[in-house]
């Protein structure tokens, strides 16, 4: 390596840091502005010039979770959303749909990975096409079906609805992961007396844990953030957080501080969870990059 090449590489490394910081700040700017709005007093929200330095307040967060008094009357009258109830609904629906879709998709992926299936590529293409269908085109058919079977505004209905797009994703992801595990490992366990399901659980599943974990995270985040299906298929009983946030637009009055606080409360758990699971996400993504 020549001296000029070393100098050039050194300049590139020195520039990489500032450029990365600028790019990150550019994409983080809306979130940072959102966070600052949630901590500002109501009178400072639209102040011009903007209030860059202010005394933070948790009043909006207190109003959102129902522990402060200013909006208690509106909350009890149903004119603004019950955030804690929506939080419980979101947890039930996100966790339930993630577990259901992961189980069904992984079982189907085992079939594609371990057995010779006629028209296998056609089936996999069909799963991919389901994933590519715009969600808005399925809302009306699902609404009609759920109305017939009494599943509108129920946890079961929402879990099924969210799983419609999650199962194809799980099938495609997990098929690639499972094919990377040699089938001979399961066959050896079966020779030792294990049944095929137990061999899969004891041998294969531990080896595909990074991919499984990454798939679970993606599914959970999708269900947690979904807006369209809950907007159409839920009402007061099972309203989720993304829909509840709209409720802070009430009677011509927009509670900007409360809306920003609710948005941050929805965002923070996903960010923290993703940061804690970052190692598994990276491992799962890289492991699935090569298909066996």
UniProtKB/TrEMBL annotation:
Membrane topology term reads: Multi-pass membrane protein
Transmembrane helix found in the keyword field: yes
Q: Which UniProt keywords apply?
A: Cell membrane, Membrane, Transmembrane, Transmembrane helix, Transport
Domain (ABC transmembrane type-1) spans 87-277
Pfam families attached to this UniProt entry: BPD_transp_1
Transmembrane ranges, per UniProt, are 15-35, 91-112, 124-143, 155-178, 199-221, 241-273
Instruction: Report the subcellular localization.
Output: Cell membrane
Q: Give the source's domain of life in one word.
A: Bacteria
Q: Which PANTHER family match?
A: INNER MEMBRANE ABC TRANSPORTER PERMEASE PROTEIN YCJP, MALTOSE TRANSPORT SYSTEM PERMEASE-RELATED
Membership in a protein family? Belongs to the binding-protein-dependent transport system permease family.
Can you name this protein?
Answer: Carbohydrate ABC transporter permease
- The record lists the organism as Leifsonella bigeumensis
Lineage of origin: Bacteria, Bacillati, Actinomycetota, Actinomycetes, Micrococcales
């Amino acid at each position: 390596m020549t001296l000029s090449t070393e100098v050039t590489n050194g300049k590139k490394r020195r520039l990489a840091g500032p450029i990365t910081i600028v790019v990150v700040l550019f994409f983080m700017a809306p979130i940072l502005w959102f966070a600052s709005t949630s901590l500002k007093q109501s009178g400072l929200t639209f102040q011009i010039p903007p209030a860059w330095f202010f005394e933070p307040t948790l009043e909006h967060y207190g109003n959102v979770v129902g522990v402060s008094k200013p909006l208690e009357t509106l909350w009890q009258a149903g004119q603004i959303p019950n955030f804690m109830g929506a939080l419980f609904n979101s947890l039930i629906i996100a966790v339930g749909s993630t577990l259901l879709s992961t189980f069904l998709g992984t079982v189907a992926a085992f079939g594609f990975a371990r057995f010779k299936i006629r028209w296998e590529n056609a089936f996999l293409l069909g799963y991919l096409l389901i994933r590519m269908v715009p969600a808005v085109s399925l809302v009306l058919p699902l609404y009609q079906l759920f109305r017939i079977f009494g599943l509108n505004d129920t946890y079961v209905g929402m879990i099924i609805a969210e799983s419609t797009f999650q199962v194809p994703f799980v099938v495609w992801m997990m098929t690639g992961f499972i094919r990377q595990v040699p089938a001979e490992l399961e066959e050896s366990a079966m020779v030792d007396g294990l049944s095929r399901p137990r061999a899969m659980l004891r041998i294969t599943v531990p080896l595909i844990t990074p991919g499984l974990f990454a798939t679970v995270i993606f599914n959970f985040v999708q269900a947690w953030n979904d807006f369209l299906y809950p907007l159409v298929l839920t009402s007061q009983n099972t309203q989720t957080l993304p829909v509840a946030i709209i409720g802070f637009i009430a009677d011509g009055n927009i509670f900007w501080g409360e809306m920003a606080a609710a948005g941050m409360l929805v965002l923070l758990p996903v960010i923290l969870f993703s940061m804690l699971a970052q190692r598994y996400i990276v491992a799962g993504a890289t492991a699935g990059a090569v298909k066996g």
